[in-house]
Amino acid sequence: MAGMTVRTVADRLTSLGMVTDEKAAAVLAGIAEWNAEHLDEDLDERGLISWLPEFGVAVSVHGDDVDFVEDYYSYMLEEEVTAVTGGAVVVSDVTLVRGESGSDKLHFRRNGESVWWHMEHLSEDYVDQGAVAEQISDVDPGGDDPRTFHLVERSKRVGCDDDVYVLATPQQARTLRDEFGLDFHSLDRRYPLRGAAPTAEPETVEWYMQQDRRTMTEPAKAFLDRWLSEMDSALTAWRGRFLPGDFPFDFSLGSLAALEPLVTSRFASRAEVKAAADDPFVVGAVRYIGETLIRNAPGHWYYRDVIDSMYDRVPTVRSNTPSAFWASVIPLHELSHLAADREPGTLAASIEPLHSAARSYADAQRGVGRGA
After folding, report:
1. Is residue 189 one of the residues assigned to a domain?
2. Has residue 193 been placed in a domain?
3. What global pTM score does this model have?
4. Coil/strand/helix, residue 331
5. How far apart are CA 248 and CA 156, in angstroms?
6. 191 found inside a domain
7. Is residue 219 domain-shared with residue 84, that is, in the same domain?
8. Which residue range(s) make up the domain with 332?
9. pLDDT, tens digit, 9 for 90 and up, residues 264-282
10. Runs of H (alpha helix) within the chain
11. Tens of pLDDT along 193-235?
């Protein structure tokens, strides 16, 4: 970064369209009034990162003692996020709902929408930087605005360093990386921009499915649409081909107990189920388990294909709760557990995470004094 100064940073941020000429001039004037020598000092990585919030292009999440975390979250979200986004995102009504053993929930409104974050606080004095990193995309502008918050990856962390999130388009972030030497977390990983807010009645199944689609890729949406549109005909065909005549095909939890011996008679291990994931019997069982869970607990079908994890590229049942309370049940994995452990009641027991998520959400809503 030899030769990089606050002046050169200001010029580049301006030319990239990240800062207005007026803002850059005001920042430089303020620095000159305080200590003019800083304007032309060579910047190392730490110095460069520390100046970015001053130009209004980044939010800094404090790593040291903040005294009162709820007050800090209010300031960070209501003041800093709103300012950095230029009012594209307006945050209000920040409330920290305390839970057991430091497991808390942060509720706020983003442009009027209710948003919940899961947090861990073992002390009143420190921000949960990891939780912010996981959920910062909730305050990306979204829609047609290509800017997102990018976490700067420091080459060396010292003590309780702040986490700094730069609001930039993908191309702007790559330019900062290539020209400034800044590294950003997951810069080249493609996530869909957050889409428009749901139009369905809040808290309905359709509302939660519309929420999901805001951050789904087009191929994932197409898969889910096909999966749902074929549900009835696929289950009818599966029933006629694989189920005995006396099978209680009524989507009750008791019917899952009747399904278990059909599974264990076919598969003896997780590996066998995994290898047969596309087998018509397994696909039909996945459909039936999922539909049974949805009929007996607040949940809906979900599918994603963004990153490689146990939850990707496999039909999933997700709880009807905001993301901070999500519980996901993967019917294919439940079949694998059953085949390996051979424990009666495995399939019916898989409903409990959905019920637990609903209870946790209801408790948190009471914590902010209303149905959020």
Report:
1. no
2. no
3. 0.88
4. helix
5. 61
6. no
7. no
8. 205-367
9. 999 999 999 999 999 999 9
10. 6-15, 21-35, 45-51, 69-74, 82-84, 129-135, 170-180, 205-213, 218-229, 231-242, 253-264, 270-275, 280-296, 331-341, 346-349, 352-367
11. 888 889 999 999 999 999 999 999 999 999 999 999 999 999 9
